[in-house]
Amino acid sequence: MTPLSVIITIAAYFAILFTVSYIAGRKADNAGFFVGNRKSSWYVVAFAMVGSAISGVTYVSVPGMVAASNFGYLQMVLGFIAGQLIIAYLLVPLFYKMNLVSIYEYLENRFGISSYRTGAWFFFISKMLGAAVRLFLVCLTLQLLVFEPFGLPFLLNVAITVALVWLYTFQGGVKSLIWTDSLKTFCLVVSVVLCIWYIASDLNLSFTGMVSTIADSDMSRIFFFDDVNSKQYFFKQFLAGAFTMIAMTGLDQDMMQRNLSCKNFKDSQKNMITSAISQFFVILLFLMLGVLLYIFAANQQIAVEKSDELFPLIATGNYFPAIVGILFIIGLISSAYSAAGSALTALTTSFTVDILGTKGKSEETVVKMRKKVHIGMAVVMGITIFVFNLLNNTSVIDAVYILASYTYGPILGLFAFGIFMKQQVRDKYIPLVAIASPVLCFILQKNSEAWFGGYQFSYELLIFNALFTFIGLCLLIKKDKKNN
Fold this sequence. Notes:
Layout: H1 3-25, H2 30-35, H3 42-52, H4 56-64, H5 66-69, H6 73-98, H7 105-110, H8 113-147, H9 154-169, H10 174-202, H11 207-216, H12 234-250, H13 253-259, H14 265-299, H15 310-315, H16 322-357, H17 363-391, H18 396-407, H19 409-420, H20 430-451, H21 461-475
């Protein structure tokens, strides 16, 4: 694709995106920005959630990872479904009962202000890093396709990208996100299905021939039960998927603000179950695409140095009709920008409500504060993306889950203790526990092979992180009988 065709494609998409965002978010007040006035239809949210769970990282990295991991990622996706069921039937009724705007308000009610601030700050760090990683990937692709050919620096690329995200989330918040996520889901599914169809046609494969070719490939193996020390071992992946879903969706303001926009908790449960099952099949499409891309690359003798480069290299490399490159760009920007927009909205909500505080302040004051925070979050996100560009040395999807293992663990441990234990704890010491747990996990991960006979920690490190936090809270239980 030429740089001009990429620019035209992005401009056309954003024209539609801004129109949808404006119509959905017009006249939105603070309640509309934060929780969508709790008037969203569950089936609309379910459709939107399919796309909201799939970022630019998934779009680019999942097809490329089949060479190293086969279809093993589906083991984790099955865990995602289990985690989604736990969220739907345990957390959602609780959050609706408490009528929460920010889910971290639960920690203040349960423990105290230190726990509340700790949860909010860990979410802030987690979401900012995760959003930066995801948006970094789209910036890299745009740098390759647009900015480098014109001799423009990466810093300008980041500034323009973040500015666009800020613009379309500025007015409507969650109300806009649900409808823009619906647009994203549509673009995402259509682009992947058509890319599969074009590549299969080029390989002279009918539908049954394509399915047979993928099934016969060594890259289509799903289940790994043979080596407990392997990172691909089924129970590691499944349990990590379940707990990652609970942490990164159920305890994540970004994802839960959509679910909490439904009319009641039963509608929210319908939305979550429907979207979880749908996401499984969408991820399966990405993995099928990955096998076809590797087969095509082998036939064409295309050298792929990094797995994240596979899909962009082939889709935009003039190997297919121009429509394939256009579909790739639409899918990438719809997934990446939407994910970044939802993260920016959630960061604005959490920082305004949880860290600065809105209690006792007028609607007008909160609006002014929220708009300033929104700008500040965009600036911090841009800086974080630029720094990550200087430090990046790993697969981006791997980086996302590694970060999640360290930053979401304390949040998961806090909520688990709060829900399953009745005792009160010494609230002022909770930040120390939340910091110590990731440090212990880092030490454990670095020494696991030497200490445990070659055992390698994968994303199940999140579970140990939460467990350390839970144990730390047990040590902080107040001994006063009246608090037991």
